[in-house]
Design a protein that fits this description.
The structure holds two protein chains of two kinds. By secondary structure, chain A is an alpha/beta fold. Chain A is globular, with a radius of gyration of 15 Å. Chain A has an eight-stranded mixed sheet with strand order 2-1-8-7-6-5-4-3. Chain A is about 25% helix and about 25% strand. In chain B, helix 6 crosses helix 8. Chain B is about 35% helix and about 15% strand. Chain B has four domains: about 100 residues, Sulfite Reductase Hemoprotein, domain 2, CATH 3.90.480; about 160 residues, Sulfite Reductase Hemoprotein, domain 1 (2-Layer Sandwich); about 90 residues, Sulfite Reductase Hemoprotein, domain 2, CATH 3.90.480.20; about 140 residues, Sulfite Reductase Hemoprotein, domain 1 (2-Layer Sandwich), CATH 3.30.413.10. The N and C termini of chain B lie far apart (about 55 Å). The chains are: A alpha/beta, B alpha+beta. At the A-B interface, helix 2 and helix 3 of A face helix 1, helix 2 and helix 6 of B. Bound molecules: iron/sulfur cluster. Iron/sulfur cluster binds next to loops of chain B. The site of iron/sulfur cluster has 12 residues of chain B, from loops.
């Protein structure tokens, strides 16, 4: 699978492990619930850990753990759920999170310009054939009116 | 008036290019209906009963003659020779073809106009007082702040997918002509005890299904904190506003359900963390203010001696009485252009009228035109000596009906004729009411009555704050109308009280004239309609309206 990361199309080297599946080796991402339940076990493994959060989760729940988390996935249940835009802003703007923030799930290629402005730097699109078009939309605007994360 | 710089121009041109690509992707099937819906709405494109509708932003109601001519050109070239002014100071085209909309947007961009965020669940066009900068009761001109807010809201990346639409209004005068108490955020320029000017901030007001009067969340906010405070409110709303039910998704419901105390605590905590980073410098404010500097008023305007004699013309005198407002500069007047002529749908204007008004604005009013939230236009800076020739020309254009603030100056949404959400028609009912009240003397005797009519619960024409509100409802597939009395969107804001059961379509005009007759019979001296409703309640009206049932 390919994704956009830091304005490039690259191969994805993360695997999301669902709540009931065995942990694998490598870069693995887990749900917030699993992170909360198995935090110690996950930290003991030497691999990079990612956490997937949804719109109704609060970033404050992982605020204290951010040094141990290399990837935060923002999982869109529907593209209209704008809470994840504020989550991204809070992660960067309030918690000064430096790791990867990745949009995943049901979002539109046409949203990645705004997402990038609020601090999302990686995009796992539903359809990989949209990748080139989506990448191009990052250049839709050369000017803006307001401060955000970018 | 604000003039675009290179950044402003680049931004709207890039937006046109982006929307052109999005429209093409939709037309060639690469993006779905659902996705395109969200994208087009954020650019003012609805799909209505007959055709797409394009809503163009009228930033806080301010337009220049070049822009008005462009609207005329668009009406002629892409539509059926007319356009419609809305209650939020925007402009609608009812008949454009979807594939042509990118071209229309390009035309608009050439005169510093756009349709960005005129619909959709995002930050909408900011509205304001149509007499800003010229009225006699002004604390400070709100337009520079409107422009600062316009820029801040435009393409705001974090708040583009809100739970629901979000509207901000700013008023700078003692009399609230911008209905700030019925906006998601209402801003009122006020003086504090130290004599400094800042904002009183209201939140959670709104019309629609659940009309609520906004509450004060910040009694006094320093100007430099304007944007940080707005951002704090929006972030809290974006995070916590309800998304499970679109009828409960406006910020008013969040404020109501969490309680004002808790809500304002959340906002305060957020605000304290961001405010130092988002300060609005006084230099920035001053730079924007420069763009709203008063025009070059002529000092000899006050020396006009011909006026008294001109007023002997009774029609002219009546027009002066109803369709002009006092101006802060001696010798000048603000003039209302009535878009409520008897045979014209409220708020509609033809291409010919638009072109002619642009010429009049150039000739008499520094090339500026304003739209009002009661769907009329204003030429704000007319020299007294020019009033007579201006009146004559407006007369010949059917734009001088002397009915501003009277019962036939009613506001009305497109209703069943255009809107796919409508339960009932409004334009034809408005026409009937207008015809029934065609006796000017009677109309003027009734005086200040605001009638607002919407074709469904969404309340686009603010029926719940009309002195008389008319709401179209559906009863087993036929059109019925619910009447309310006593609403107001001005300082003493109130939501109208239901008069009784809904009336059938052919009974509406009769009901309205009955209500007005009751007023004429029972009013005290110079008591206004609204004051009488406050004094006697709805019963005396109810008895007469439902007398035969
Ligand atoms: S009030 Fe209802 S009918 Fe009228 S324009 Fe709004 S949505 Fe349409």
């Amino acid at each position: 699978m390919q994704i956009i990361k830091d304005r490039q199309i690259i191969d994805d080297n993360w695997t999301f492990v669902s709540n009931d599946a065995e942990l694998e080796a490598g870069n693995i991402s887990v749900s917030l619930t699993r992170w909360k339940n198995d935090k110690q076990q996950l930290l003991n493994s030497k691999d990079n850990i990612g956490v997937r959060i949804g719109p109704s989760d609060s970033v404050d729940d992982i605020g204290a753990d951010l040094n141990d988390i290399s990837l935060i996935e923002l999982d869109f249940p529907v593209f209209t759920d704008g809470r994840l835009f504020s989550h991204a802003w809070l992660l960067r703007g309030r918690y000064n999170y430096q790791g990867e923030i990745r949009a995943t799930g049901h979002f539109m290629p046409d949203q990645i310009f705004y997402l990038s402005r609020v601090g999302v730097n990686a995009f796992n699109l539903e359809n990989t054939q949209d990748l080139p078009v989506a990448l191009a939309t990052l250049n839709d605007f050369t000017v803006n009116y307001q401060k955000s994360i970018d | 008036m604000y003039q675009y710089n290179d950044t402003d121009q680049t931004l709207i041109e890039e937006r046109v290019a982006q929307f052109r690509r999005q429209t093409e992707s939709f037309l060639n099937g690469t993006i779905s209906d659902d996705q395109f819906r969200a994208l087009r709405l954020m650019n003012g494109v609805y799909i209505q009963t007959h055709a797409p509708m394009l809503r163009v932003a009228g930033p806080y109601g301010l337009l220049n003659s070049k822009q008005i001519r462009k609207l005329a050109h668009i009406a002629r070239t892409y539509d059926k020779n007319y356009c419609h002014f809305t209650t939020r100071q925007n402009i609608q085209f009812n008949w454009p073809h979807l594939e042509k909309i990118p071209d229309i947007l390009e035309e608009l961009a050439s005169v510093q106009m756009h349709a960005i965020q005129t619909s959709g669940n995002c930050l909408r066009n900011t509205s304001s007082d149509h007499l800003a900068g010229v009225c006699i009761d002004e604390i400070e001109d709100p337009r520079p702040y409107c422009e600062i807010i316009r820029q801040w809201t435009t393409l705001h990346p974090e708040f583009a997918y809100l739970p629901r639409k979000f509207k901000i209004a700013v008023s700078g005068a003692k009399l609230d002509r911008a209905a700030t108490q019925f906006h998601d955020i209402g801003l009122h320029l006020i003086n504090n005890d130290a004599g400094e000017t800042g904002f009183k901030v209201l939140v959670g007001g709104g019309l629609g299904r659940t009309p609520i009067i906004g509450q004060v969340i910040k009694p006094y906010l320093e100007k430099k904190h304007l944007l940080s405070y707005l951002e704090a409110i929006l972030r809290i709303y974006n995070l916590f506003g309800r998304r499970d039910n679109k009828y409960k998704a406006r910020i008013k419901i969040l404020v109501k359900e969490s309680g004002m105390e808790k809500f304002s605590d959340l906002v305060e905590q957020e605000w304290l963390q961001i405010r130092d980073n988002l300060e609005l410098s006084s230099e920035r404010i001053d730079t924007v203010k420069l763009q709203f500097a008063p025009p070059a008023y002529e000092t000899d305007a006050v020396n006009d001696t011909s006026f008294a004699q001109k007023l002997e013309n009774r029609s002219f005198a009546t027009w002066i009485k109803y369709n002009t407002a006092t101006h802060k500069v001696p010798g000048y007047h603000a003039v209302f252009i009535s878009l409520k002529a008897p045979d014209c749908p409220p708020g509609d204007m033809t291409d010919t009228q638009l072109d002619a008004v642009a010429d009049l604005a150039d000739k008499y009013s520094f090339g500026e035109i304003r739209s009002t939230h009661r769907q009329n236009l204003v030429l704000a800076d007319i020299k007294q000596v020019d009033l007579y020739p201006l009146w004559q020309q407006l007369e010949s254009l059917k734009l001088a009906t002397p009915n501003i603030g009277t019962a036939t100056d009613l506001i009305c949404c497109p209703g069943l004729d255009f809107c796919s959400l409508a339960n009932a028609s409004s334009i034809s009912v408005a026409k009937e009411i207008n015809e029934a009240l065609d006796d000017l003397d009677y109309l003027h005797d009734i005086g200040d009555v605001k009638i607002n009519m919407s074709g469904c619960m969404n309340g686009c024409a603010h029926q719940s704050v009309g002195h008389i509100g008319i709401l179209g409802v559906d009863k087993k597939g036929s059109e019925w109308y619910q009447l309310t009395l006593g609403g107001s969107s001005e300082n003493e804001a109130a939501i109208g009280e239901r008069l009784g059961p809904a009336v059938a379509k052919d009974q509406v005009t009769q009901a309205i004239t009955t209500i007005l007759d009751v007023y004429i019979k029972q009013r005290l001296d110079d008591e206004s309609f609204l004051d009488m409703v406050k004094r006697v309640g709805t019963n005396p009206f109810k008895e007469e309206v439902y007398a035969n049932n």
